[in-house]
């Protein structure tokens, strides 16, 4: 216990404000266990600054159990989830606790201390919550070993930066190879890609900091879920429900790594149209997220759970006119007089991180509206023109020197599903944010049923407040 108190005191002596996405790498098992949350004074508003020195006024003990149950010492029961490998959120006794996992950086060495958190935020539940405070968490009487990983050496990092600073060049042999080894989809050359630096292209596809080191596999489908999914229509598309389109127009994020913001805004736009029977066709501002959210990293990436859900519930969304899209980072310039629209009941499909599967995605999609999903982007996806996409691995089959494109996790909007009548191949219908000149007028189809590029393992939904 003394060792635990000394470690906690050490962490309390540092006041650091962290924004996602961090180099931390903490798993479900790292977080599960008995925690104490050292909390500062309550009664603050959402403008609270947790980077300042905090006076601890209380200690709250909570046990995080399998699979997502939270229990405190008074017998209150709540729930919890990890948020990728970055941190975790606990909801219990009419209060929420969210913090990022603690890490340090020294030269090339990144050390994750998963039994501790940085200073995080606590507040009441519901939309536009009140009673904010700052807290810091530590596992009780559990001595976990820190996790250490190395980043690139300075020389390699410099070389990589030089390469990524070059303009991207489409490889025609690669495109021909893609089209020759399969007939499910077609690849093509896009002029706009050759006008972008490789580093900007990586950002457009999600950004380096959005990459998920270890993605969860889809959860098993139980019999009840299988029965419910079997009763759904064979085909469904929110762009055409009895002739009505509930999906907002395709947009273009440009070279900013803001796909998470565009997908999050698109989900809330679609669900608002659905709930209002298309009487409200608001376009929300991704730039407000890029500039103003402490839950993400601007043009360097972010995660939809924290934006389509948590940010939308805690701070609300504004219309595009309140902060028009610039496609770059900057100081928060959102007009403070603008009305904010809130979303609530945000969740990973399945209830918590790691509980998602494609049957649950179909059910949520058809019942409640489009979902934000993340998937692994490979270089062949950039050249997609049409058809049902799957990763070809064509780059490995060509005599190509080096692939400068780095695999990323790209956030997009799931709007429907269907089956190709000629081949019997099941597919998802997905809205991208690369403009109407890319893909099938800004959309793409991707294989369904085999977790293609991990698209069936991480879906997020929320409930827009009308």
TrEMBL record:
Q: Which cofactor does it need?
A: chloride
Q: Which Pfam families match?
A: CathepsinC_exc (PF08773), Peptidase_C1 (PF00112)
| Signal peptide segment | 1-20
Q: Which domain of life is it from?
A: Eukaryota
Query: What GO molecular function annotations does the UniProt record carry, in alphabetical order?
Result: cysteine-type peptidase activity; dipeptidyl-peptidase activity
Q: Does the keyword RNA-binding apply?
A: no
SUPFAM superfamilies tied to this protein: Cysteine proteinases, Dipeptidyl peptidase I (cathepsin C), exclusion domain
Q: Name one GO biological process term.
A: proteolysis
SMART domains given in the database record = Pept_C1 (SM00645)
| Catalytic reactions of this protein | Release of an N-terminal dipeptide, Xaa-Yaa-|-Zaa-, except when Xaa is Arg or Lys, or Yaa or Zaa is Pro
**Which positions fall inside the Peptidase C1A papain C-terminal domain?**
232-463
Q: Which UniProt keywords apply?
A: Chloride, Disulfide bond, Glycoprotein, Hydrolase, Protease, Signal, Thiol protease, Zymogen
Write the Enzyme Commission number(s) for this entry: 3.4.14.1
Tell me the function of this protein.
Thiol protease. Has dipeptidylpeptidase activity. Active against a broad range of dipeptide substrates composed of both polar and hydrophobic amino acids. Proline cannot occupy the P1 position and arginine cannot occupy the P2 position of the substrate. Can act as both an exopeptidase and endopeptidase. Activates serine proteases such as elastase, cathepsin G and granzymes A and B.
Spell out the family assignment given in the record's similarity comment. Belongs to the peptidase C1 family.
This protein's assembly is summarised as: Tetramer of heterotrimers consisting of exclusion domain, heavy- and light chains.
Designated name of the protein: Dipeptidyl peptidase 1
């Amino acid at each position: 216990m003394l060792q635990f108190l000394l470690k906690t005191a050490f962490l309390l002596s540092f006041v650091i404000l962290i924004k996602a996405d961090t180099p931390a790498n903490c798993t479900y098992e790292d977080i599960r266990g008995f925690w104490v949350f050292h909390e500062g004074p309550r009664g603050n508003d959402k403008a609270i600054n947790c980077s300042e020195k905090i006076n601890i006024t209380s200690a709250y003990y909570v046990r995080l159990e399998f699979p997502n149950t939270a229990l405190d010492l008074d017998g209150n029961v709540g729930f919890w989830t990890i948020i990728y490998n970055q941190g975790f959120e606990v909801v219990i006794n009419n209060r929420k606790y969210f913090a990022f996992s603690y890490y340090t950086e020294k030269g090339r060495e990144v050390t994750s201390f998963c039994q501790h958190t940085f200073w995080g935020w606590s507040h009441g539940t519901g939309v536009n919550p009140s009673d904010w405070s700052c807290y810091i968490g530590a596992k009780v009487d559990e001595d976990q070993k820190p996790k250490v990983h190395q980043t690139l050496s300075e020389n390699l990092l410099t070389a990589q930066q030089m390469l990524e600073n070059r303009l991207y060049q489409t490889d025609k042999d690669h495109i021909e190879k893609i089209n020759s080894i399969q007939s499910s989809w077609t690849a093509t050359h896009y002029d706009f890609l050759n006008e972008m630096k490789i580093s900007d292209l990586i950002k457009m596809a999600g950004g380096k900091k959005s990459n998920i080191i270890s993605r969860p596999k889809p959860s098993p489908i139980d019999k009840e879920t299988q029965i419910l999914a079997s009763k759904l229509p064979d085909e469904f598309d929110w762009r055409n429900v009895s002739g009505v389109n509930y999906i907002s127009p395709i947009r273009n994020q440009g070279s900013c790594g803001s796909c998470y913001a565009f997908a999050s805004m698109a989900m809330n736009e679609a669900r608002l149209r659905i709930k209002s029977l298309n009487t409200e066709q608001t376009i929300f501002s991704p730039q407000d997220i890029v500039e103003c959210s402490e839950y993400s990293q601007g043009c360097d990436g972010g995660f939809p759970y924290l934006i389509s859900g948590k940010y939308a519930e805690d701070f609300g969304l504004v219309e595009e006119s309140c902060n028009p899209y610039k496609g770059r980072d900057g100081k928060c310039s959102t007009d403070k007089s603008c009305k904010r629209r809130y979303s609530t009941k945000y969740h990973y499909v399945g209830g918590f991180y790691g509980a998602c599967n494609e049957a649950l995605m179909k059910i949520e999609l058809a019942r409640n509206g489009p979902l934000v999903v993340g998937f692994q982007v490979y270089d062949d996806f950039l050249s997609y023109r049409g058809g049902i996409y799957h990763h070809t691995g064509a780059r490995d089959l060509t005599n190509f020197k080096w692939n400068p494109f780095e695999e990323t996790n790209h956030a997009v909007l799931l709007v429907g599903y269907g089956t190709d009548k000629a081949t019997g191949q099941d597919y998802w219908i997905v809205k991208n944010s690369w403009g109407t000149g890319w893909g099938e007028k800004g959309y793409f189809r991707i294989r369904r049923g085999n977790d293609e590029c991990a698209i069936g393992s991480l879906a997020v939904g929320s409930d827009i407040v009308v």
